[in-house]
Design a protein that fits this description.
Elements (H helix, E strand, L loop, with lengths): L1 H8 L2 H7 L1 E4 L10 H8 L5 E3 L4 H12 L8 E4 L12 H5 L4 H17 L4 E2 L23 H16 L11 E5 L18 H8 L1 H8 L4 E4 L3 E2 L2 E2 L4 H11 L5 E2 L9 H4 L5 H11 L4 E2 L3 H12 L4 H17 L22 H11 L1 E5 L12 E5 L25 H8 L4 E5 L9 H13 L2 E7 L18 H11 L4 E7 L7 H6 L2 E4 L7 H10 L62 E8 L3 E2 L4 E10 L5 E10 L11 E10 L4 E9 L5 E2 L5 E2 L3 E8 L8 E7 L3
Parallel strand pairs: 1-2, 1-10, 2-3, 3-4, 5-6, 6-9, 12-13, 12-14, 14-15, 15-16, 18-26
Antiparallel strand pairs: 7-8, 11-16, 17-19, 19-22, 20-21, 20-25, 23-24, 25-26
Helix pairs in contact: 2-13, 3-4, 6-7, 7-9, 10-12, 12-13, 15-20, 16-20
């Protein structure tokens, strides 16, 4: 076997080289530095990131192939929601609740990235995120572990395509573990949660990715109860490798191994390297801990060379799966570039499915009538670049359709006036007065507000995740005119803006929709697409509620508005602005009968759950139905609701249909403190409805029988 032969012939420096990842010159570098190229020729580099141009990638690969053993590099990149064609940010795409869509967009991204000579992406990001202060909620699939697990499976399958064919992109499940629970929602901060929360909430999406065959896992920057994840053998070795059986590559996050010194668990790079390799980290991303510290650690007796050999073998196995070790093979580089607009229709479909209609007073939407005057205002109305959101790979603003462009194309007969009114952050009194004058003359106002892409994502935590003050002034001045006002919110997180929901007639959460932002939004605004997106996170009223999520545990004193001795606030509501699963349609769906195929369930058995749903409106539409469970009496207090399945049903106006779910007995189990699954006898409530609102859910009961 070639891998055995390579390992046998390698020097220690060459082995450590395979475990070393470097970054190109600066950010988005065209090539490696001369010193890095010399290291590649000497076999001291195994993988690279930060190279986006084919010429630079080919130069780096040529240097690696000129080394003694001629082992190609793994070329990596952050391809989170598209490569050249940009799809909605993951939080937005999660709102579609559609695994087939998630897989399709990952497949499209893999086709484009592999044609650009990229071998591995640092995606999917699977951190369960329940705190909108944390900027990386934009990259996540939201607050629910079941949803995160389905997202994980779809993305891994889409990117990797079973490692068959020319358009393979190895996937990396990140950031393990519990990164979404950083204290105070502050990026790179510490995490201190219970073992139960870790196993029940934060690990399931990663376990699902492993079952789906993910190629790599990235530990998070944070410590977990005082143990930094880059040195956390209890999780990386004992849970991930031993319990889950993961035999792929574990790659550190950017400089995370070297940062073990800052965490205070290593005195120098040799100790840091020893801790990481013993924990199971195979690749050191750019920290220099492995190239500068691993041989020293070996000489000190801190590690054994057998551990290094194990890591090198895993890296070489990944290279073999990517086709990089075959005679003359280039792996994904053999893929032909897809046509420039090959994935535009998919981008538009993904964007329109991700848009959530939060509010629609008086049915002001959809826009209708042969001719009206519309004032399109706000700093994001004609901004192509911000529509791409954070981590948009090689996507370009020039190829992006703005909201204004989409509206003008969709409503050619309407009188449309555009004024920005303000910048995203910058005030301009003249611009504000011009916008207000346009609003006064118009029949309707469309306000396009929100964040800049840089205000969400990595290193973009916000203590006050609301609208910038200049945009609030613009919005309130428009509302004061008494015009019918529709708001499109572009953001990477829910925004705490109760004042806006009080005054706006309609509000759409568009997130950052991607390359086809304008046409997708125009289709939703005009009713050519009946909105079907649903919130994958609870939308808070106030920052003081965070973290906020539907699957909280009951308290001995549940909140009562007029009872001081209960779990409530004295200044804001306990409930979110909008619950998990919320999303309106231009039609009305009614839930009727709930049926269970059996009343009792034993291990190994399943129950079929059916709910009748009627479209009582005058438009065709698609409903997303949620199946929750509630275990009212257990040895450990269980969440008030737990999501276990989702079903979509398309119904014509006036039509009725049946949403069907299958629930296995094993799905009713829960983990103990060690993460071992426990199934207990007793009654389980089965609830079906449109969102995580107990008042809207149909209820049935099951009896779990163990003996």
């Amino acid at each position: 076997m070639r891998i055995d032969a390579l390992l046998k012939s390698m020097t220690l420096d060459e082995k450590i080289g395979q475990l070393t990842m470097v970054c190109g010159l600066g950010v988005d570098a065209p090539t490696l530095s001369d010193a890095q190229l010399r290291d590649a020729e000497a076999g001291r580099i195994g993988s690279v990131l930060g190279l986006w141009e084919i010429s630079g990638i080919e130069r780096a690969q040529a240097a690696a192939k000129a080394s003694r053993l001629a082992i190609p590099l793994i070329v990596t990149a952050d391809v989170l929601h598209g490569y050249e064609t940009i799809f909605p940010i993951p939080l937005g795409e999660a709102a579609a609740f559609d695994p087939a869509l998630w897989e399709a967009t990952a497949r499209a991204a893999a086709e484009e990235a592999s044609s650009g000579r990229i071998d591995l992406t640092f995606a999917p990001m699977l951190d369960v995120a329940r705190d909108a202060r944390w900027g990386r909620i934009a990259e996540s699939p939201g607050e629910d572990p079941w949803l995160g697990a389905r997202f994980a499976e779809a993305k891994v399958h889409g990117f990797q395509h079973g490692f068959s064919g020319p358009s393979v992109l190895a996937a990396t499940a990140k950031h393990l573990g519990a990164y979404g629970a950083v204290m105070a929602g502050r990026e790179y901060n510490s995490v201190d949660i219970s073992a139960r929360s870790l196993h029940e909430v934060y690990l399931p999406p990663f376990a699902a990715a492993v079952r789906a065959g993910v190629a790599a896992i990235m530990p998070s920057f944070n410590d977990l109860g005082g143990i930094p994840m880059a040195a956390n053998a209890a999780i990386l070795r004992h849970v991930v490798r031993e319990r889950w059986g993961f035999d792929g590559v574990i790659v550190s996050d950017y400089a995370a191994v070297g940062e073990l010194l800052m965490h205070g668990v290593a005195a120098d790079l040799a100790e840091a390297a020893a801790l990481a390799i013993k924990a199971g980290v195979d690749i050191d991303m750019v920290s220099d801990a492995y190239p500068k510290g691993l041989a020293v650690a070996l000489r000190r007796g801190l590690v054994e060379e057998a551990l290094i050999d194990e890591a090198v073998r895993r890296v070489l196995m990944l290279k073999a799966k990517l086709g990089l070790l075959g005679e003359g093979a280039q792996g994904p580089a053999s893929a032909s570039p897809p046509p420039g607009n090959a994935h535009r229709d998919l981008a538009r479909d993904a964007a329109r499915r991700s848009i959530v209609l939060l509010q629609n007073r008086g049915d002001v939407l959809p826009l209708r009538g042969e001719r009206q005057s519309l004032a399109v205002l706000g700093p994001l109305a004609d901004d192509q670049n911000e529509m791409l959101g954070p981590w948009h790979a090689v996507g370009k603003a020039e190829g992006t359709r703005s909201i204004l462009a989409g509206i003008r194309e969709a409503l050619p007969a309407w009188e449309i006036t555009h004024k920005a009114g303000s910048g995203i952050h910058d005030d301009d009194p003249d611009a504000l007065s011009g916008a207000l004058e346009a609003a006064r003359k118009a029949d309707l106002v469309l306000l396009c507000l929100g964040e800049a892409a840089s205000m969400s994502g990595e290193a973009a935590s916000r203590a006050q995740p609301d609208l910038p003050e200049v945009q609030r002034r613009l919005a309130e001045a428009v509302f004061a005119l008494g015009k019918r006002a529709i708001v499109v919110l572009c953001s990477g997180r829910p925004l705490t803006i109760p004042w806006l929901f009080e005054k706006a007639d309609a509000v759409l959460a568009a997130w950052f929709p991607g390359s086809e932002a304008g046409p997708a939004l125009a289709e939703v605004l005009t009713g050519r697409w009946n909105p079907s997106g649903r919130l994958p996170v609870s939308w808070p009223v106030h920052v003081g509620q965070m973290p906020i999520f539907y699957a909280h545990r009951p308290t001995g004193r549940p909140a009562k508005p007029d009872d001081m001795g209960t779990s409530r606030y004295i200044d804001v509501p306990v409930e979110p602005q909008f619950p998990f699963g919320h999303g309106l349609s231009y039609t009305r769906f009614a839930y009727r009968a709930l049926r269970l195929s059996r009343k009792a369930l034993r291990p190994g058995e399943s129950v079929v759950v059916e709910a009748d749903i009627a479209n009582e409106g005058n438009r065709d539409g698609e409903e997303t139905a949620f199946l929750f469970i509630r275990d009212p009496v257990a040895s450990v207090a269980r969440p008030v609701l737990e999501l276990k399945a989702v079903a979509k049903i398309a119904l014509a106006a006036g039509e009725s249909g049946t949403a069907r779910f299958e629930l296995s007995c094993e799905q009713l189990a829960f983990p103990d403190e060690a993460g071992t699954s426990v199934l207990e006898a007793g009654q389980i409530d089965v609830l079906v409805g449109p969102k995580a609102d107990r008042n809207l859910l149909l209820k049935g009961t099951l009896e779990v029988q163990i003996a």
